[in-house]
Design a protein that fits this description.
Number of strands: 8
Helix content: 10-25%
Structural class: alpha+beta
Strand content: 15-25%
Largest sheet: 5 strands, antiparallel
Distance between the termini: 22 Å
Shape: globular
Strand order of the largest sheet: 2-1-3-4-5
Radius of gyration: 14 Å
Order of helices and strands: HEHEEEEEEE
């Protein structure tokens, strides 16, 4: 599996780095957990054609259920989403797939800069780093 192995410091002190999030996700797979990928909703700021495409993808697939690390390479190109073990209901891990690479990120509150989670973000309202 080819992932970004960026070790750049997190945007918020004490928050995990992309490499730490990657290791966490790999451990979820090693533990035999099914992983959900729930796309971030950018339809408020997107073009109508993207909104139609996004809604079609979500109706067809969301949440995406992943069973192996290689399944991350089957995510829609250029979209980001929340990544968490099935049934856990909350996560801070955001994941996207671009140009053959998986990237792990955080979402922060646009005003405070604090890390937000799936539950605390309003399901996609924030700044992705």
């Amino acid at each position: 599996m080819k992932e970004t192995t960026d070790t750049v410091a997190s945007p918020t002190p004490n928050a995990p780095t992309p490499k730490e999030m990657e290791n966490l996700v790999i451990n979820w797979f090693k533990a035999g957990l099914s992983i959900e990928w729930i796309p971030l909703d950018y339809t408020e700021i997107a073009t109508p054609s993207f909104t139609n495409y996004f809604e079609h993808l979500c109706n067809e697939h969301a949440p995406w259920i992943l069973h192996t690390p290689m399944d991350l390479h089957n995510l829609p190109e250029g979209l980001t989403g929340w990544l968490m073990p099935s049934g856990h209901g909350d996560t801070f891990v955001v994941c996207g797939y671009w140009d053959g690479e998986v990237a792990f990120m955080l979402m922060t509150h646009p005003d405070t800069g604090e890390v937000v989670t799936y539950r605390t973000s309003g399901h996609g309202k924030g700044v992705v780093h």
